[in-house]
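Sample entry was shown:

___
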Amino acid sequence: MMLKGKNSSKIILLVIITLAIRIVFSNLPSFEYDENAYRIWSARLVEKGPSQFYSTQFFTNNPLGGLYAFWFMGLFKNTFLPNLSFFSGNFDLLLKLPANIADIISAILIFVLIRKRMGPKWATAGFLMYALNPALVFNSSVWGQYDGLSTLFLLISIFMIFIKKIPELATLSLATALVIKPQAIFFVPAFIILILLTVKPLRWFSSLLTFFITTLVLYLPFFPTNPIYGLFYVNRNSVNLFNCTSCFAFNFWGIFGNWQNDLQNFTNIPFAYWGAILLFTTLLLILLVKPLALKFKPPYFYLTTAISIMAFFMLLTRMHERYLFSFFPFLLLAAIMLKSKILTFFYILISTLHLLNLYLPYAYYNNHAKVTNLPINYLVNNFQVFSFISFLSFIILILYYFFYVK
């Protein structure tokens, strides 16, 4: 069993308290553009079913993993609360519930991983630092996004490798994370190397087969005649929706301005390609420079993963502010397991920057949610400064990583 005795009672109490706190924050106004789409999609899924959801005549440009949550909550509403409107504030509470629960389960997994190595006190600190991280609470409970749902399955995949030693379940979980949010691909390079280093070759193939089967099974209800076509259709449309350098993200490209066209050229090469070149070069240094084996053993693996996820966010174009979410559990695991005050400082610093980054588009578009224009005006006017601070934090974190893991 994962939890026993006093630990079980303590974690149950913490779960109840943190869930209650998140439900209170869930009553705050959502990000209206996103939440309204979720309401409509939930109603559409209940009415028409998944096989008729995607349509060129209707805005349905969303990865399908989250649609399962909207579909389930819509069915739940119709079954148990038939008089509740899809467009009421109380239904918004239901729509936010899966992400909030996912964050708390993620915190439980963090608790288990830390306790196994360091004991219950450190594990409790990890639980609270994740479950009550203001930036993550804002994302799931206030904004109403579900990045935490995808991140949960990334943590499950690690749990299945390090604790349960079942790589097939790890790749099943990874496939689920990618279907929920394609941004889970930020985690994939480190995960692939981990599999190659820790899993016997015969199980590479069973793990890969599990990954592909899981992906197709999840796409099948939405594309019953051709799930492979559905895979390309959904992800192609998501990638091509915006062509911004930084889409409100405090990253390298944000230093040069917000929402610039990433198809502009620098030395006859589009910014989008420069982002890919910078990322590829950085990942080579992070993942493949010696000591390779040490980088992929816990607790160092968590730091390697956190840095590589942040590299995607910082260096690629078309990044939105929310895409840094999955960075936080891995940096937190590394900070606590390595007992590093420096990493703990960066966890707090980057969490603060991320909260400000989330608030920027939230308040920019949610006019009814603003108490005053002063914070949003300050963030807009200093967008490049905050982007520089964020990118500088990334550079310092990489330098620390190179000097520490050797």
The longest strand covers residues 246-247. The two ends are 35 Å apart (CA to CA).
